[in-house]
């Protein structure tokens, strides 16, 4: 996951140079004018050169030279690789009770019987899709059958959520003093929004119920020194499979214009900008926030895309789904285009 990334048309937050008082500008320029990046050795692009706030440090790093990349200047103090403990995150305990509590999984004899029934329905539906793809386009994910492996997959997500201070939520959440649920009206979308069919809504609900029972998507969250947290397929995933819904707190875009929120996603792009909404997964979220974006400025970057991000009208409300746009083999990392809609996200330095 690219740190401090945003996937919305909100303007960039103020840089430190814009926040500093005017009286200190000249002194700051003379004191740090000869700072160069510790990674590339260049002093070019000074607007994107961060100074470490470590004690008596002030070493410089370009935003785009850091790994993981920083897309925007962070608020508050920032410590570079020279002063931070860049250690691998502590793994979440591979303990069924702790994992069940973390994801609020409810299992009973009835639920186990329901799982078996849904598995049989899923197999019958999959066989019919070959003959009627136009009638039913989207597929439910197919969980890993091995229980121990599913626990490992969920523990990997719990590790990433814990390391980023995020509480698990698989739904859009509406919090006091943020946007109310009544504000999420798909009819306000500028240019209209694709309506999710009744059958595809059933598929989405099936995915939700499987997750509620502990049958997670076959995905593993891994930590990469270059990309940060990222997601890879843990078994073969078919084209048009629903990977996950983008979840988090819903707020008005106007309230987040200068927010360094991690990985904000546009939920509603209204003709009236004051009614536009974003999903903010920094406090509540799911695996979607750890799926990386492609560098859509290069052919090689575009070739990595194996998911598409789509906003749907679901019973009158806007929802954001990540869907496989081709077959994905086991072990392949998941990527989608952060600029699928607004073309505002700076991806030119993505790995």
TrEMBL record:
Gene3D superfamilies: SET domain, Zinc/RING finger domain, C3HC4 (zinc finger)
Extent of Acidic residues compositional bias: 20-30
Keyword terms of this UniProt record: Chromatin regulator, Metal-binding, Methyltransferase, Nucleus, S-adenosyl-L-methionine, Transferase, Zinc, Zinc-finger
CC per GO annotation: chromatin; nucleus
Keyword Nucleus: yes
Pfam families linked to this entry: SET
PANTHER family in the cross-refs: SET DOMAIN-CONTAINING PROTEIN
Name under which the protein is recorded: [histone H3]-lysine(27) N-methyltransferase
UniProt source species: Prunus persica
């Amino acid at each position: 996951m690219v740190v401090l990334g945003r996937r919305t048309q909100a303007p960039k937050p103020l840089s430190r140079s814009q926040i500093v008082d005017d009286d200190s500008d000249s002194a700051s320029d003379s004191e740090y004018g000869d700072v160069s990046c510790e990674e590339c050795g260049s002093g070019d692009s000074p607007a994107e050169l961060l100074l470490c706030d470590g004690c008596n440090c002030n070493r410089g790093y370009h935003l785009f030279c850091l790994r993981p990349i920083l897309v925007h200047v962070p608020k508050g103090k920032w410590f570079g690789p020279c002063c931070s403990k860049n250690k691998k995150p502590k793994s979440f305990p591979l303990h069924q009770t702790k994992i069940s509590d973390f994801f609020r999984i409810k299992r009973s004899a009835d639920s186990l019987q329901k799982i078996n029934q849904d598995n049989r329905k899923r197999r019958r539906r999959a066989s019919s899709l070959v003959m009627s793809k136009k009638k039913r386009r989207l597929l439910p994910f197919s969980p890993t059958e091995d229980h121990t492996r599913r626990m490992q997959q969920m523990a990997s997500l719990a590790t990433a959520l814990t390391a980023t201070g995020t509480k698990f939520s698989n739904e859009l959440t509406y919090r006091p003093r943020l946007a109310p649920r009544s504000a999420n009206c798909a009819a306000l979308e500028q240019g209209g929004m694709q309506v999710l069919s009744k059958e595809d809504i059933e598929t989405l609900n099936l995915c939700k119920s499987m997750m509620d029972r502990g049958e997670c998507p076959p995905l593993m969250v891994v930590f990469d020194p270059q990309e940060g947290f990222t997601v890879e397929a843990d078994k073969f995933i078919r084209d048009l499979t629903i990977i996950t819904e983008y979840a988090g707190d819903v707020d008005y875009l106007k309230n987040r214009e200068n927010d360094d929120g991690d990985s904000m996603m546009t939920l509603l792009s209204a003709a009236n900008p004051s009614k536009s909404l974003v999903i903010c997964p920094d406090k509540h979220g799911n695996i979607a926030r750890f799926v990386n974006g492609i560098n859509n400025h290069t052919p090689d970057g575009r070739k990595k895309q194996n998911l598409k991000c789509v906003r749907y009208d679901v019973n009158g409300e806007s929802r954001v789904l990540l869907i496989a746009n081709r077959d994905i083999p086991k072990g392949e990392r998941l990527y989608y285009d952060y600029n699928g809609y607004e073309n505002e996200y700076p991806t030119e330095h993505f790995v």
